[in-house]
Amino acid sequence: MRQIAGDMDGPAIDGLWAVIPAGGAGTRLWPVSRSSSPKFLHDLTGAGRSLLQSTWERLEPLCGEHIMVVAGVLHEAEVRAQLPRLPLANLVAEPSPRGSMAAIGMAAAMLERRDPDAVIGSFAADHVIGEPEVFAKCVREAVAVARTGYVVTIGIEPTFPATGFGYIRVGDPLAIAGAPNGRQVRSFVEKPDETTARGFLETGGYQWNAGMFVVRASVLLDLLADVHPKLAAGLRDIAAQPARLAELWPGLTNVAIDHAVAEPAAALGRVAVVPGRFTWDDVGDFASLGSLLSEAAAVPGLRILGEVDLVLAKDTTGVVVPGSGRTVAVLGLDDIVVVDTPDALLVTTRERAQDVKSLVDLLKATGRADLT
């Protein structure tokens, strides 16, 4: 086994490759997150490292150098700068966004050629996860289940009736050695309304779908071939002939891995879930971001990302991001979001945080895509 100093709960996992899809623009976190500098490249928790770097630190003890990052060509240089220990061959630059299935599938196809028995674990670059030891134990269980031929997802115990996440309907326990918490997945459920979400919590039989998948690379591609044969063939062609990436990539179907593989495989009884009993947040908007930041010492209820001395506040709650170098003053406002950058200022409420994406759409529609 590959031994790594400072590992979590044992040595690195033989045969496991972590795949980090580093895509998406994080438009609900505009104007901090832009297409040229998406949220995974930023320190959004005040930890002193970006979300991507935190993801790397969480996975390196489990995989060593067996980590592959799939990022857009625009972000290739910054990813290399932030992850100096990432081997050159393990950063794959996608020419344009083609959905999570193409990104993860391309990595799977490349790794399948390196090791036909490889197990891949796909973990987004922009999630915040606590309790690394608990996370590591969960991944070890997921790998044990994946080696038996299942697609394994890591479910998150819901703590409130979220309408912004998909859900996993959990089935019967599985009797698999090394995975005492493994369960069958009955189905995946799209984002529900609040009444439905409350019903899910009351039954106790549903978990949040965090988009984390662990599966043998060959199993993933074979399942994909059953539903999207041209996509699976195209990904394997790219892996066999990397020089044709730019030529073949535009012809790939743009589809999410959930729709392409997870949902149809669940209908066939081929998907399992291991519960993730760690804290998790996808940092999906400024309301979510606010829950990750500590309260300002001088102003209870106010959370600041950036230089605290640049914020002058009184009788105010919410989130302030002073990013332009100038002072931001707020007075007598509840649950406000103020994000100040050199070329754009956002003022909204935490209640409307999910709607920030509509402003990005409006900028594009009015010919101001340079700000997005």
Using the coordinates shown, work out and report the CATH topology of the largest domain. Answer: Spore Coat Polysaccharide Biosynthesis Protein SpsA, Chain A
Instruction: State the helical fraction.
Output: 25-40%
Cα end-to-end separation? 45 Å
Main beta sheet: strand number and arrangement? 5 strands, mixed, barrel
Second-tier CATH architecture of the largest domain = Alpha-Beta Complex
Describe the protein's architecture and organization.
The protein has 372 residues and is of the alpha/beta class. The protein has two domains: 266 residues, Spore Coat Polysaccharide Biosynthesis Protein SpsA, Chain A (Alpha-Beta Complex), CATH 3.90.550; 77 residues, no CATH class. It is 31% helix and 24% strand. It contains eleven helices and 17 strands. The strands form four sheets. The protein has a five-stranded mixed beta barrel, surrounded by four helices. Strand 2, helix 2 and strand 3 form a beta-alpha-beta unit. Helix 3 packs across helix 9, helix 6 crosses helix 7 and helix 6 packs across helix 9. 45% of the residues are buried.
